[in-house]
Recover the amino acids of this structure.
């Protein structure tokens, strides 16, 4: 807390049910992305790079993998004497029964004691399932310069799509004057990214009142922001222009992975000044056999390739056997494509084997094929 | 508490790796793309449950100290275990004085205070996978005083020059330890790995230090074959000894062979190293990679064949890199042809059109050089 006196809380309780079988056993923030990462590495690394020392991770759905993953704060350098990543699932308290988190705001309310113990000036609220690089310290500077009680990060979206988002309408000074959740006729194209910086004292008061309000759904968008607006607390929009992706569906998860294949990927994964940190898997470098054919690809350590890889992303320890052809696809950690198999426009889940000679996916499919179960090969 | 503590010695001063060694000790050499040689003995010990590990450092320690850090990435318990770095004076006017025994004697008080009953000593210029726990078990069951690990080779006439080899009787009793001068292809190359009681170890080094300042542990043990029951234990699986530039080059390239790679790298026996958090490697249109081991963080636009490539290397469009070991952060420019080279870190090959050395005699490009 030494640098900017801002504590971060990451909302990581969502299931991500549109990711189908990928989130049967793990919560969405723990889903693998970009060869060697998990989605939650992005907000956690952003925190570490922004000089934030203490991060609470609010978990709920299938949190075993996620909890043990984020608990090792050393991966993001957040394990010094005065820093840490703390897993905060719902818990039983002395004066009340066991409560699940009833909404995004409630997840924070139920951890007021944790936040108070660090006595921060500012609270940063993040979502655990977005892919982007952002300097939260610069956003805090903006928050302070505007004397705001709440700063909301927004990004311009195409007008046609604006009705799918929470839209912030601002005046000419960037002060938020109206908030519309999925408006039929949007007045602005500035969509909320679910990233908030609150002045903690102000938010604390609002949350304490909200907890007792029987009509509240205890949600930031539905309850807290309208409350800030109606009581005239200063809210400003902070415009973000870089790469940002919500990987909510199999298609968008596939697409975000394919974005890494660009000549100059907008995510700039190789920027040494803003690294994304992750688990170290202790696997050897990627190994190519005599029959390997590669053109555009994004491949990480532990992979063994002796077949063809075209325009695809291979995650840790994925394997492509001799004569196999992988095109426009994503092979998640430990996925194996055996000899002569063909994988096209597909996303092969963790550890799934595509048997010898089997064919999955097709070049003209409308959606990306998710392969989450073993595919038998030729006998 | 573990029964044994571990010692990892610096490579013997007999070995000279041209070029590479000007910048760092052999222990600190990059190997197989993302590792340093010292990672292999430390991981072997850590995986065997050895919690106190001493690494002896000679020569410029900067890279090694930075790499080893607190030892946490080697899975060593930070409370009950310890990774100790022991420096010894390498500024002696005559290199002959830089022996392992001299290094031990400088740390003799530390060695005497160690509580573990046994010591396992190994070196950092040999690469292999070995479960030291089972080796210790085997040693104790055999009731021998000293056990020495060896690897049977059939090419000692052309390789392993300057390595020691064991002469064994039928019962694997050690008759002598001699230096390989390349007279015979079949040899039991000594892996500079010893198992014995700490008390015997201390006795041997103290005695040796009194007799000659130039004695090595191997020599001292060889002189004690009458006094102690010394036996050889055969190692099987991948084995490489780094003794000069050619063996460094060969050992790296040997891991392109999948069988070799599988023998050295086993999921159940991880080799730990210091992670740099580099992103995956990006291959662009027109890239080609065959028979190669490639680390993360690279951008490959050209052709890579029969190579070991370190982290963050850039291979430009139209470039062809064959039969080479390219160390981290080097850059091969557009249309440059490279064959049979060891290219040290941060080198830039941009002006030269081609760098080709004859097979069997790898060339060496210096660190930070621009060609």
């Amino acid at each position: 807390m030494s640098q900017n006196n801002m504590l971060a809380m990451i909302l990581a309780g969502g299931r991500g049910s549109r990711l189908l079988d990928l989130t049967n056993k793990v919560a969405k923030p723990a889903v693998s992305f970009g060869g060697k990462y998990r989605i939650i590495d992005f907000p956690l690394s952003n925190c570490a790079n922004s000089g934030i020392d203490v991060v609470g991770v609010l978990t709920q759905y299938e949190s075993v993998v996620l909890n043990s993953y984020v608990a090792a704060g050393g991966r993001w350098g957040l394990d010094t004497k005065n820093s840490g990543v703390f897993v905060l699932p719902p818990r039983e308290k002395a004066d009340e029964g066991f409560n699940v988190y009833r909404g995004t705001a409630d997840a924070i309310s139920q951890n007021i004691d944790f936040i108070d113990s660090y006595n921060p000036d500012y609270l940063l609220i993040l979502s655990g399932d977005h892919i982007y690089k952002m300097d939260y310290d610069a956003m805090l500077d903006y928050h302070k310069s505007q004397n705001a009680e709440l700063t909301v990060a927004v990004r311009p979206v195409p007008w046609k799509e604006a009705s799918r988002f929470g839209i912030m309408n601002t005046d000419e000074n960037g002060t938020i004057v109206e908030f519309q959740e999925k408006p039929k006729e949007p007045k602005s194209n500035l969509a909320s990214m679910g990233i908030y910086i609150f002045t903690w004292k102000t938010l604390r008061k609002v949350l304490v009142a909200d907890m007792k309000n029987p009509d509240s759904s205890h949600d930031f968008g539905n309850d807290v922001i309208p409350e800030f607006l109606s009581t005239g607390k200063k809210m400003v929009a902070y415009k973000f222009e870089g790469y940002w992706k919500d990987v909510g569906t199999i298609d968008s998860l596939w697409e975000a992975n394919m974005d890494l294949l660009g000549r100059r990927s907008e995510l700039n994964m190789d920027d040494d000044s803003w690294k994304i940190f992750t688990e170290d898997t202790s696997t050897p470098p990627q190994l190519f056999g005599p029959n390997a054919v590669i053109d555009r690809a994004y491949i990480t350590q532990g992979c063994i390739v002796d077949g063809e890889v075209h325009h695809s992303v291979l995650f840790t320890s994925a394997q492509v056997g001799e004569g196999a052809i992988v095109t426009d696809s994503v092979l998640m950690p430990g996925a194996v494509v055996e000899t002569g198999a063909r994988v096209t426009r597909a996303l092969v889940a963790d550890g799934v084997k595509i048997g010898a000679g089997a064919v999955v996916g097709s070049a003209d499919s409308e959606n990306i094929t998710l392969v989450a179960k073993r595919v038998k090969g030729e006998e | 508490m573990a029964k044994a503590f571990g010692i990892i010695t610096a490579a013997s001063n007999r070995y000279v790796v041209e070029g590479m060694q000007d910048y760092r000790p052999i222990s600190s050499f990059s190997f197989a793309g993302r590792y340093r040689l010292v990672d292999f003995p430390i991981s072997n010990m850590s995986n065997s449950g050895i919690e106190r590990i001493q690494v002896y450092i000679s020569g410029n320690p900067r890279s090694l100290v930075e790499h080893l850090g607190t030892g946490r990435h080697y899975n060593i318990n930070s409370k009950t275990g310890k990774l100790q770095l022991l420096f010894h004076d390498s500024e002696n006017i005559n290199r002959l004085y830089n022996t392992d025994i001299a290094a031990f004697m400088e740390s003799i008080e530390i060695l005497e205070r160690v509580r573990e009953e046994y010591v396992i000593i190994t070196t950092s210029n040999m690469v292999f996978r070995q479960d030291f726990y089972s080796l210790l078990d085997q040693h104790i069951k055999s009731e021998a005083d000293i056990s020495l690990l060896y690897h049977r080779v059939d090419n000692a006439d052309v390789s392993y020059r300057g390595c020691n080899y064991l002469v064994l009787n039928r019962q694997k009793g050690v008759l002598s330890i001699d230096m390989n001068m390349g007279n015979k292809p079949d040899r039991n190359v000594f892996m500079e790995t010893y198992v014995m009681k700490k008390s015997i170890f201390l006795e041997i080094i103290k005695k040796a230090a009194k007799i000659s300042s130039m004695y090595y542990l191997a020599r001292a043990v060889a002189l004690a074959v009458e006094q102690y029951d010394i036996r050889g234990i055969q190692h099987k699986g991948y084995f490489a000894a780094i003794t000069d530039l050619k063996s460094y080059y060969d050992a790296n390239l040997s891991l392109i062979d999948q069988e070799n790679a599988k023998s050295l790298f086993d999921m159940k026996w991880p080799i730990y190293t210091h992670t740099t958090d580099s992103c995956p490697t990006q291959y662009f249109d027109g890239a080609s990679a065959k028979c190669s081991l490639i680390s993360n963080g690279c951008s490959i636009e050209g052709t890579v064949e029969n190579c070991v490539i370190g982290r963050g290397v850039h291979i430009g469009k139209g470039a062809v890199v064959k039969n080479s070991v390219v160390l981290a952060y080097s850059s091969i420019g557009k249309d440059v042809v490279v064959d049979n080279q060891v290219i040290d870190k941060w080198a830039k090959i941009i002006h030269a059109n081609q760098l080709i050395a004859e097979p069997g005699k790898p060339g060496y490009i210096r660190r930070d050089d621009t060609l």
